[in-house]
Amino acid sequence: MLFNSLAYMIFLPIVFLIYWKSPFRLRTPVLLLASYVFYMWWQPIYGLLILGLTVFNYFYAFAVEKATDRKKLVFSLGIAANCITLGYFKYAYFVHDIASDASKFLVHKEIPNIPFDIILPLGISFFCFEFIHYLFEVYRGAKPVRSFMEFALFPAFFPTQIAGPIKRFGDFIPQLHAPRSITRQDFDEGVELILFGLFKKVVLADHLAIVVNRCYAHPDLLTSADLWLAAYSFAWQVYFDFSGYTDIARGSAKLLGFSVPINFDLPFLAGSITEIWRRWHISLSTWLRDYLFIPLGGSKFGELATLRNIMLTMIIGGFWHGAGLNYGAWGASLGVLMVVHRLWSKFYTKNETLTKIIKTRYYHVLAVFVTWHFWCMSAVFMRAENPEKAFMVIRKLLYLDRIPDTSFFHASIVSTSDSILFQFLPLILIGMYAMQIIVSKSKETPGIMPALNLRLFGMPVFKPAYMALLLVVLFIWSPDFSPQFIYFQF
After folding, report:
1. Per-residue pLDDT of the chain (490 residues; tens, 9 = 90+)
2. Which end of the chain is more exposed for a tag (fewer CB within 10 A), N or C?
3. Beta strands at 455-456 and 459-460: parallel, antiparallel or unpaired
4. Shortest CA distance to 228 belongs to which of 214, 209, 218, 215?
């Protein structure tokens, strides 16, 4: 069941009504049942997978808590069990292909194909990471969740089940115990987030996907300018696709009285790759920091060890996104850029003149511009079919062999039906970012947006008009076919 489907638009209101009409003691069972219906809508058999992992981790956490002499071994076996499950479903074909290629090269023999199909369960990367986080926290001293039903809802909670945000059980479980009620403000904010997320996905991401798909169908035939268009479009496509999903997830959770983590914080205004990574998919970047980078040693054991840990964390983070060398290359490219930024930061902090220059607004604007372009180039690895094609695209990006004569968008890339949208796209992008900046600043400085509190005959004006406009735009500019969210495949 996709967030941008009619089925979900029917499912959510039904769950909303049943949930709030139920007595408090029945709300967790209602949500758990709804979450399993949501997950099994796609492939019923995989409901057994998430249930099996839930049962295993529920009981295993108590074993970790009770272990004394061999606590680390018991904990490590639990982590291994979750990693093996994730590895089997997500990386079996990838490992087989690598092993087969190595076998052909070394002993001139092929390894037989896997004799059965392995279907990647939706959301497995996300809920496996939640289970791993849970065992880590119990190992570090947190008390295991006593109620099986409450624990079962932690990974299964349908707003975040398929593509996050990755939750922390210490944040989620207490919300099940807190008295919950739905206020008019909560309802309005939830609906607004859902509409805003659908706008990002259906109007922006799906139309940008048209350009990206056409460019990457035959990248060898395109000019540097065409491929820069593809690189820019893909960066925005992924941002709007995933942040749109997150908005719908957060809005859905809010309608049910829950708060889930924010996943994006205006990443394309960051002045370095390190900063953009901290603002991008925040629940993943903080997970990698807490449960991979720090356990590896973090920055405690000297500069070389720190740089090594950065590279390992980013390469593993790249492979988390997909089973392919191109994903590993994407993570490695970000790791290299982070290492360079760290070394540069250590260098300029020793120079007083450079430090003064770097603190200026002009340098920050330049840093944002350069960071954005490095991010777009690194994202080529994520979108290209393989590293070879990615390097071919990057080589072309670095040589602007032809600038478009009249229009940046070539007719062969952008169809006539999309031309009106793409003429307004720069304004839409600027407007979207400006709105997010204003809203974030308004929370820090109350009263910064008095116009948003405008009332007519005692009724609020801005929010209803804003949501009505989103609905109109969704209706007019929705493509004939809206693909699934990009992060579903991760």
Report:
1. 788 788 999 999 999 999 999 999 999 999 999 999 999 988 888 899 999 999 999 999 999 999 988 999 999 999 999 999 999 999 998 888 888 888 887 777 778 777 678 888 989 999 999 999 999 999 999 999 999 999 999 999 999 999 879 999 999 999 999 888 888 888 988 998 998 898 888 888 888 888 888 888 888 888 888 888 889 989 999 999 999 999 999 999 999 999 998 899 889 989 999 999 999 999 999 999 999 999 999 888 899 999 999 999 999 999 999 889 999 999 999 999 999 999 988 888 888 888 888 888 888 899 999 999 999 999 999 998 888 889 999 988 887 555 444 444 454 555 544 544 555 555 555 665 555 555 555 454 444 444 444 444 444 444 555 555 555 555 555 555 555 555 455 5
2. N
3. antiparallel
4. 215
From 7, 9, 51, select the one nearest 252 (Cα to Cα): 9
Calpha distance 461→145 (Å, rounded): 45
Tell me the C-alpha distance between 320 and 336, whole Å: 18
- For 203, 317, 451, 482, the CA distances from 423, given in Å and listed in that order, are 14, 36, 29, 21
Nearest Cα residue to 325 out of 97, 102, 485, 116: 97
374: exposed, middle or buried (C-beta count within 10 Å: 0-12, 13-18, 19+)? middle
Other beta carbons within 10 Å of 141: 7
Q: How far apart are CA 222 and CA 487, in angstroms?
A: 27
Q: Say if residue 387 is preceded by a cis peptide, omega within 30 of 0.
A: no
Question: Are 426 and 253 within 8 A, CB to CB?
Answer: no
Catalytic residue among 207, 321, 341, 410: 321
> Is 334 within 8 Å of 378 (Cβ atoms)?
yes
Q: Is 281 a catalytic residue?
A: no
What residues form DSSP beta bridges with 467? none
d(CA 421, CA 128): 39
The tokens for 196 are: 């805003």
Give the end-to-end CA distance of the chain in Å, rounded to a whole number.
16
Q: How many CB atoms lie within 10 A of CB 386?
A: 13
